[in-house]
Amino acid sequence: MSPHHLALLITAALLSALLALGLSLQLGWRRDAARWPHHALFFLTCAGALLSLELAWRAGAAAWALLPALALLLSMPRTRPGRADHWQRALLSAAAFALGALLAWSS
Q: Which residue ranges does UniProt annotate as crossing the membrane (predicted)?
């Protein structure tokens, strides 16, 4: 397994954990206790997406496919937590990453 494949897998796992924690916050589970881990996971997911993009680019894979996901992730702070635009952008970011990861993986 190449480094960019490993980075894509780790970032996908971080993104999955971030979405699961975000859903639990949305449903009201331990809202105050889980907010800082959600922010930490967000930072790690953004860093993982950037690292995945760089490693895919260095490997000659379709790194451009990860740009929409990274742009959507980095635009997330413009939305307010708990509102529809926040979770909609989160799901759109996840879908963009999944599609970008598939394209970067197979090239």
A: 57-75, 87-105
